[in-house]
Structure formats: C-alpha cells, structure tokens
Amino acid sequence: MDLKSVEKKWQQRWEKAKLNNFDKRSNAPKLYVLEMFSYPSGAKLHVGHWYNYGPTDSYARFKRMQGFNVFQPMGFDAFGLPAENYAIKTGVHPKDSTEKNIATMEEQLRAMGAMFDWSAEIKTCDESYYKWTQWMFLQLYKKGLAYRKEAPVNWCPSCQTVLANEQVIEGKCERCSSEIVRKNLTQWFFKITEYAEELLSGLDGLDWPEKTKNMQRNWIGKSTGCEIEFACESGDKIRVYTTRCDTVFGVTYVVLAPEHPLALKLTTPDREADVKAYIDYASKANEIERLSATREKTGVFTGSYAVNPVNGRRIPIYLADYVLASYGTGAVMAVPAHDERDYAFATKYGLPVVKVIERQGGDTVLPFTEDGIVVNSLNFDGLVGEEARDAISKHISMLGKGGRKVNYRLRDWLVSRQRYWGAPIPIIHCTKCGAVPVPEKDLPVRLPYDVEFRPDGKSPLAKHEKFMHTTCPNCGGEALRDPDTLDTFVCSSWYYLRYADPENDKMPFDREAVDRMLPVDTYVGGAEHACMHLLYARFFTKALRDMGYLDFDEPFRRLVHQGVILGPDGNRMSKSHGNVVSPDDYVNEYGSDAFRLYLMFGFSYTEGGPWNDDGIKAVARFLDRVEKIVLKVNEYHTGKTEPFGSEEKALDYARNFAIARVTRDLESFSFNTAIARLMELVNVIYKYDGLETKNITLLKETVKDLLLLLAPCAPHFSEELWEKTGERGFIVEQRYPTENAAALVLDEKEYAVQVNSKIVTKAMIPSSYTGSEVETFVMGLPEVVERVAGKTVKKCVVVPGRLVNLIIG
RNA sequence: GCCGCUGUGGCGGAAUCGGCAGACGCCUCAGACUUAAAAUCUGAUACCCGGAAGGGUGUACCGGUUCAAAUCCGGUCAGCGGCACCA
C-alpha cells in the first residue's frame, strides 16, 4: 500500500466530515484527552513530538471507538525565550519566526493524522489569548495572590532576566547553564505558597505517576516543627524555627541570616565594621557557592546576646550565611551537639557544645543528630524523640514563647521577566497612585512589534516610548507601564481551560463550558514539567475555583509521562552529538502509520529508549502481512459457516483473547504489548488460512475484528482496508470490538505439572475438573508415577488452569 | 547526605494476584521458492554439558520467607532522576 497517498486521502476525508471535532450535540460521555501543547522553537516536529502525540492519539481514537465523545485539542505555547534568543542572533523578529514555525508545525501535525480538534486551536501569543492571560493576572492581583516586592531574586546574566526558583538547576540557568547571581529587585510574585497545603494534600487523590507526585511533595517540602522566641538583651525578639525542639536545652548561640532585618540593629558599635564587612561578603557570594553544603561555615559575632526561654541561659547572637533568609524565620537556634552544621561552626569559633540527647543503648558520638533520650533538660529528661518534642513544644507555648509551626520549602512564584517576547504585565505605575491595575476594559495591553529586543539588563519594552507612556487609570495623570512581561509558564497555566471555549471574547471561558469539559481526563506529556507547569496549573485551578470561576479542584485527573527517545547511540538527541533522528525521513519512506506504530511497539511507552532503525522495518512488514491476509480473505466466497471444530475454536479463542488484551493494554498505555497481541492474532490467522478446509464466515469475522482492533494504531491504513473490503462508513466511527467471554472458556487447559516444585511434564486437563480431580488426573501421568513410586504425597497445590505441584517425600 | 526509580537472552522488551521466565519483535542460523539475489513463507534460537534422550544453571549480587520468588522481606553493588546548609 502506498501509505503516503492513502494518508493524505483519509486526512482530507476526516476533515471534510469534521470527524476530528468534538461533537457538542452528542450525549455520549465526554473524554478530554490532552497532550501538552507544542513549543514552536524549531520549525519541524521532532521524534519527541511524535512520541508524545502519536500513541496518545491512538489512545484517544480507541476511546472514541469505545463510544466516548473525545475532545483532543492542540495549540502552541508560543511565547518564550528561544524565539527571542533566535531573534537576537539572526535579527528575525520573534513574532515572524514563531508564526512561521507554527505554520510548518500545524501542517506536520495534520500529516501525522492525529484526531486533533483544530477548531479549538489556541496560540498563547495571539492577542485574543494573552488578553486573558493578563486578565488572570488581574484577578490574582485583586484576590491578593499577585503582589510586588523587593527580594533577592535569581538573575541570569546571559538571558538578562530573572528566573523562578523552579528554573534554576543547581545554581545554573535551566536554559543556558550560566551561573545565577542574586540581585535585589522589585518583582511580581504569585502567592503559590498560600496553596502549599492543598497542593500537597491534593496529590493523594490523583491518578498520576508516584514519582511525579513525590517530586511535587519534595518541592513543596512540608516540615513540621516549632517556632521559639528568644528575647534579646536589647529588647528585640528573635523568632527561630526548628524541627528539633527536643534539643532546645542544648542551644549555645543563635544565628541570623546576614539579610535578617535585625542583623544591623543587634550589632554593637565595636562589632559594626566586622559585621558590615561580613554582610557585604555574604551578599557577593553567588548561588552556587552559597548553596554548597561543603562550603566552610563562616559567620560573625554581633556583640549582642539573647536568652534561652527554657533555661535562661545567656547566648551570643551570630550572623552566618549558612542560614537562609528565605526559609522559616531566617534565624535558627544553634545546637552544636546535635546538628552537623552548628557543630562545624561552633568548633571553628570556639562556642560551647552541650549534649542534651543520648543514643538509646549505645555510645553517643557528637554531633549526634538522630532521635534519642533527652538529658540535661530538667523535667523533660528521659523522654524520647516525638514525645519529647511534643512535651517541650507544649511547654514553650505555655510560656508564650512560640509553639508548633508548619513550614514549606515552596517559595512564591516570581513571574516578572525582563524580556520582550511575552505577555506584558497589565500594571501602570503612577507617581501618585503607585501600582495601578489596567482596567479590564482596556485589555489587552498590546505587545508592540517595533521593539529593540537586544538585551542590556533592562526590559526591552522600557525603551519603547509609545508603549511606556500612558495615563493613570486612577488619577488621569502621566504614568508608565510596567515594562516586564510574564513568565511563559503563566500562559500555560490555564490553556487547558481555554480550549473548552476558545472563541469567547467576553470571558477567558464560560464557566458552564469549562465545567462540562474539565477536568482533563488524561493528560500526557514529559516528566520534566513535574515541579513547574504541572504545579503552576494546579495552583491556577485552585485559585480560579476560589474566585468562583470553576467548580473542580484539580485540572488533570490522570497523568501519563511518555519516556524519552534517545539517539541510536543511547545519548539524548542533540545536534552536538550528531545523533538526531528526523521523523520526516521515516515518515516519507514508511508513512505516518508505520512510524507511529513503531513508536508504539519498539519501546515501553513510559520508559522510551534508544532509536533503532530495524524496528520500523519490522512494523512495516507487519502492516504488509495484515494487508495481504485482509485482501486474500476478502476474495473468499461468503456463506460457509462450517466446520466448527477445534481449529475454529482455537481461532475464535485467539480473536477474543486479542480483543480482551488489546483493550486492556491500550487503556493502560501499554502500547507495545497491544501491538504484540495483534501480531499474534495475525500469526494465528495465517496459520488457520493455511488449512485445507476452513470456516470462511469465522475467518472473515476474525479479519474484520483485526482491522477494527488495529484502527486506532494505524488509522489511515485501517480506513483504506476497511473501504477496500467493501465496508461502509469510517472505521473510526465503528464500535471497538468487545470480547465474547464464552469463546475464552476452554474445555481443557494446559497445566504445568510439578513434583517437589520442579516441572516434570505438561498436561491438558479439562477445565471443569475440581482440585481433587486434577490431583487424581496427574497422579496417573507416567512422569508422575515414576517419581512418586515408593513415596507418599504430603501435599498437593492446585492453581486452577495453570499448575499442579505435588510435594512428595 | 535525603527521597524515588531501575537492573531480565546478542538486542528492544514481555510476564496486573507470588504460579510454566524470556510473549511479541530484531539479529542469527537452517529449510522452501528462485538460474541467482532480494522479497516472501516455514522452522530453530537463554546459557552450559550431551550425538540424542536427558541433565544442570539462570531475572545485578548475597541471604531470608514460601509448596512455589523477576515479583515479597533484609542487606550489598551499579545506573538514572529529583532535592539538597530548609535547621
């Protein structure tokens, strides 16, 4: 079959019949199958796109044939740095290159033959979309979930912009690997921390990979501990956060982060020069140095003292940059005896070490950081671990000096970017009124085209006079626009909602439309988004719910990650490795169906693996075999329903077995085994067709089921054969076969016969036999008789339909 | 350091519950067809010993539970991913 021309033909027919569009009038149950939308950075689809979209489309087609009203939209995550960086390099405007890339990718996505509902297509760089991204910002602002603050932020000197914590990997920019520096800048944040607890607890009910849920749990980083207030002799109060309040009697000093608001206030005049020098030193350290656990502890004494609330001990106050300003209270109580960092610091600066925990039933070597028996702690002595923490935290709250406290590692999401190619932040800065939100009626704040986007550390928009100058919506006076754009992850945090109502120009979406279509039933995409997109989208959903715009808590009910297809050499595909496999080459030679089929068959879907040329030839051969047998059987004269003996039973069994297993496997994204079962069925059909006398009716029915089973996996190929064999209508509109349970009941089953857990023979045993009948049966087998002779059977284990194990001795 | 995952033939990978390890496919070998090759079809194909019948070993390694372990438990090693001075 010339797949190339056949594919085009069916794509046109599907389109004409609007088969790919969600049927709004149908009352069949809806099923929202979503693949993560494409980022149009390169012009062409790469293997990763095909691997994400091809098999998932087969899943969607399968569900459609099962009777679901499937919605499978596609769009483009079109804003972002790569287009802008490309522009800086080549001078091609990001809008132009992005539009061109999108056009090419759309064409390629259509050629894939996926059942995408293009009527719902969205592009995040379109005004009609980013208008509502800006609207989202305004709603979050109104709700107090978007705020501006000056804070030390991650600055990438190469990309010339700030980054979210999530975009910093080991102190380096996730895009360009430049070392991140810390800068104090006034930026916009989303208060994702407000939802930390719900983002954590909500994970339990989700059908997501455990690994991904764990990554989010880890990222949110819930920790249950205790806040304790230490009074300073100056009258100030220092609150510290600890998870080990059972060690509070061992505190020998207190440490503040160098950025702590009290740092300078608590510094005595004689210490001022040293402290200032230290603060300066700490601020110059870059993220990598600062975060390195092996870095030598440094710090400085402030000259002031505080008092331990539980024992009245006078303890010095230090500054040290091993304490993070952004976590907990930015201050810690130091217990050198029971914390490695404090121990190292105390040893270096000659501070006392007081042991208050002992190992149960063993020697205590300091620093001892595990749970143990409390000692030297007044009436708390003898308590252990959690019970000690419980008692001591209660005591502290009784003293009015603090108490139980939960902390999260999650930080608020920094959304400002000093870049051009993004949605402008809809805020106007007025010298009189401050930051004023752009009125909703004035949206969108249009991104101007004629902008000098070469980065110089300032937002490109800041240099665009016409864009910047405006009037304050509040007082009417002269005012300036916010020159920053929104992180592209803001755009992708709500796109799955817009698909449900893509043309709405009054609202981002109609609540009813969204409640009807959402949540997404099955979401498929790469695992690299675990702590970014997937977390942000959950946050948006919850915030929008609380603002009354939707009625569900979680956007993605089921999540599947496809694996990564590596180059033939086992490395990640990249130009520098020279191992990039181009889908086009294979699609041109073998067709989209064969290419998709290989992606399904050659890998475990969630694992991925190295590309291999031979595999695609194998699936092309399989399709040839299917075509041959389908056309051959089609020529047989109909009507013969005889015979129906053991050969026919075997064929019917194989057919129904395939139906049952393929259905199960497609449901669980186990595409490779689904295809394997189809290959088995084809092998059985070939064998049966080789017989002298055959039941033509049964054979034809079996071949028809084979085509139906294959239809989601090789859609064009199956349509063509469906038509060629004289069937009417589109195969994709047929019902997926369901198995006939009766055909799967065999008269006899093959048992493995074991004696003392070793297989001695195999035997066909009637399915109707009871356990004792099976035992009697196998006792008569020569291989068993021979071994049992002169011995007694102590035990007999029968696993119905599978195995018998005789224990003799 | 912490959390998680993975480890199965020459290769990609199967094996929902603990129940015949290696489905399906690739590679390789043999046979059929062919003047020949390709394509196609049929068969073999975990490893070791053996001519065969047969026997032994085997799911990273060591041990345990069980009639029975790739699967459960304990330990070790290797690889991958995430987090990491979070008190």
What is this entry, summarized?
Helices cover 36% and strands 20% of the residues.
Task: Write up this protein.
- The model has no long low-confidence stretch (mean pLDDT 91).
- 36% of the residues lie in helices and 20% in strands.
- The two termini are 63 Å apart.
- Strand 32 (793-799) and strand 33 (803-808) form a beta hairpin.
- The relative contact order is 0.11.
- It is of the alpha+beta class.
- It binds one RNA strand of 87 nucleotides through helix 7, strand 11, strand 15, helix 10 and helix 19.
Please tag this protein with its features:
single chain, 809 residues, alpha+beta, four-stranded parallel beta sheet, 25 helices, RNA-binding
Q: Topology, pairings included?
A:
Layout (H helix, E strand, L loop, with lengths): L2 H14 L13 E6 L11 H19 L3 E3 L3 E2 L4 H10 L3 H19 L9 E2 L3 H16 L3 E11 L4 E3 L4 E2 L2 E2 L7 E10 L5 H6 L8 H11 L2 E10 L4 E6 L10 E4 L15 H13 L2 H5 L7 E9 L6 E7 L10 E4 L5 H10 L7 E2 L14 E2 L10 H14 L3 E6 L5 E2 L1 E2 L9 E4 L3 E4 L27 H4 E3 L6 E4 L3 E2 L1 H4 L3 H4 L12 H7 L2 E6 L7 H14 L9 E6 L2 E3 L16 H8 L1 H10 L6 E3 L2 H23 L10 H22 L3 H19 L6 H15 L4 H10 L23 E8 L2 E9 L4 H9 L2 H7 L4 E7 L3 E6 L1
Parallel strand pairs: 1-2, 1-26, 3-4, 12-14, 26-27, 28-29, 30-33
Antiparallel strand pairs: 5-6, 5-9, 7-8, 9-19, 10-11, 10-13, 10-18, 12-15, 13-14, 16-17, 20-25, 21-22, 21-24, 23-24, 30-31, 32-33
Helix pairs in contact: 1-23, 2-18, 3-4, 17-18, 18-19, 19-21, 19-22, 20-21, 20-22, 21-22, 22-23
The structure holds one RNA strand of 87 nucleotides.
